[in-house]
Amino acid sequence: MKNKGSFLAFCLIITMVLVAGCSDDRATTKNPTVEGIWKEIEQAVDVSDMRKGYDEDLKELYDIDANDIEEYILYTAPSNIEADEIAIIKVKAKDDLKEVENKIGRRVEALGTSFKDYIPEEYYLIEKHIVNTKQNYVLFVVSERADEIADVFDSCFK
Amino acid sequence: MILARRSKSIFSRRKRSIRIANQGRFVFFVCLVAALVLFFCFRTIYAVRKKVEEYNRELEASINMEIGDLPGTKVENGSSVGKLPSHQGQNGPVKSAEKIIQEGDAGKGNEEIAEVNDNEESAEVMDGEKITGVEKETPIKGKASYKELFADTVFLGDSITESLGYYKFIDKSNVIADKGLTVSDAIKRVEEVANLKPKNIFIMFGMNDVLSLDKSEGFIKNYTKLVDELQARLPDTHIYVQSILYVDPKVRQKKPRLTNDRIDEFNNALQSMSSGMKNVDYIDLNTIVKNYNEDLHEKDGIHYVYKFYKLWLNYIKEYV
């Protein structure tokens, strides 16, 4: 019957649309995943030798409990004599942003104390670190290419 | 009354066929729709598989970075292992390793650790791990075993020692070390060490002292004071004075004071100092460096790469 055929076609179209939506993980949407943002950063800058951080590292370095935030990604320097660090933290509520920014501030101080007077080149990078906030996301970068990474982060929200 | 009418059930009803005006057009559209559906299905499957592969690769990479390989180096055994459980617990006071070592698991870990043949094995191979990738469980157990083996040991030193904690070989609570720390700075940290009540202390200072001092006398004087203070609080603890590690010869171009000859001079003084003290032993770690067939230094020629730390721990495990 004509109606049956139309209905069937309609169902198929809906299925196709739903199925297409699931496969798209690009971060170029207004509500990107931190993983998606990281992928964009990876494509722009060589971060292959950075060490991935986990919950215990987030707690130890930032005093942030992973359960208190929505999601995060954390990468630290390949060795203890380098200061490179990238953290992207998505908070659960906008009210939490300030606290996270404060904790990042303390992390910057700790890094500074560690490297100051010992490895001036790394201390310089720590001094020109970047902290960017977009919606519920906070980016913290210590890197020679901090500006580029910050640009990539910003572009994920356009 | 006889029911004359035939019961109307769907099974008896004659099926009506769908009338198709243009069969060709109908078939075309059916094929088109089917193709589109299949396309999107495969796309999703591909995307999901890609995500899973990436996730596995990431896990592998993080495990291998923690366990054996330098960042960026290729992993010889391509097995996919489960996530490394965190061994960085909140161990405030130092635990005794005796009980742990008696357990079967730790025994296995010791076996893995003991098998490193530094000169023969290639760079990527660690404790017992074969290039064919046979020992899938080894890397996790190996690293956990170092923490267990050295559970009642404190490492006291500068940036070189700090890496032991940074690379998660040893619990950070057992590593009292900071970049730039000299032996005189360390005297202020004696309480911190004493509070952990360790059975063994491995000390490594000197790199920063060789840089800042003309002669070894001042260095030895402070080192003696450090050991005395430690022994005053921990009379039964065994103290190991580790040699200052050699630097790459190129370092002298930028830091003229930092030469291996001067390091030898300071080390000889350390050895003499240790021989005159009770419960104190001198360990020459440069044996590891001298016997290894490749340079173990970082780019700066002073610090050491990840691989070195396994060699170091394997070398000193005999003492604990």
Explain what you see.
The complex is a heterodimer of chains A (158) and B (320). Chain A is α+β, with helices and mostly antiparallel strands. Chain A has one domain. Chain A contains six helices and five strands, in the order H-H-E-H-E-E-H-H-E-E-H. Chain A has a five-stranded antiparallel beta sheet with strand order 1-2-3-5-4, sandwiched between helices. In chain A, helix 2 packs across helix 6 and helix 4 packs antiparallel against helix 5. The longest helix of chain A has 21 residues. Chain B has 320 residues and is α/β, with parallel strands linked by helices. Chain B has two domains: 44 residues; 222 residues, SGNH hydrolase (Rossmann fold), CATH 3.40.50.1110. Chain B has a five-stranded parallel beta sheet. The radius of gyration of chain B is 32 Å and the shape is elongated. Chain B starts with 22 loop residues before the first helix and ends with a helix. The chains are: A alpha+beta (158), B alpha/beta (320). The interface between A and B is medium-sized, with 31 and 34 residues.
